[in-house]
């Protein structure tokens, strides 16, 4: 019975987390790093747009954020590939507060999400 109560509590906590509301922003701010030169660049992208970050092409599918923390808990769906090549280096959700959880694996460049573009942050 004790395990049942613990399982029920975990299920309830998971359900509450899954039901937290998020909003989609019209775009995102991404940061790129050239690990060789140490140069960084911030790039503003609109959802559905592709752009270049150093030698990488980056496509932003969506940027979502919780209304209670719009600039801190953003997560964006990115597809990243080397310029002129078709093989994807990264395709998935990247989390602004924990970029290492699902990171781009590239020898020279790094790209991560800074925040979503929101009505209050524009």
Description:
With 122 residues, the protein is mainly beta. It has one domain. 14% of the residues lie in helices and 47% in strands. It has one helix and eight strands. The chain has one helix spanning 2-18; strands at 23-25, 27-34, 40-46, 50-53, 56-65, 75-82, 88-95, 109-117. Strands 1, 4, 5, 6 and 7 form a five-stranded antiparallel beta sheet that branches. The longest helix has 17 residues, at 2-18. The protein is globular and about 35 Å long. The N and C termini lie far apart (52 Å). Residues 1-17 have low confidence and may be disordered.
Secondary structure: elements and pairs:
Blueprint: H1 2-18, E1 23-25, E2 27-34, E3 40-46, E4 50-53, E5 56-65, E6 75-82, E7 88-95, E8 109-117
Antiparallel strand pairs: 1-5, 2-3, 2-8, 4-5, 5-6, 6-7
- Helical amount: 10-25%
SS-derived structural category: mainly beta
Query: Largest sheet at a glance?
Result: 5 strands, antiparallel
Number of strands: 8
Query: How many helices?
Result: 1
- Straight-line distance between termini: 52 Å
Q: How many structural domains does the protein architecture include?
A: 1
Rounded average pLDDT: 84
Shape: globular
Low-confidence stretches: 1-17
Element order, helices and strands? Answer: HEEEEEEEE
| Portion in beta strands | over 45%
Instruction: Please state the CA-atom Rg, rounded to the nearest Å.
Output: 17 Å
Short description:
With 122 residues, the protein is mainly beta.
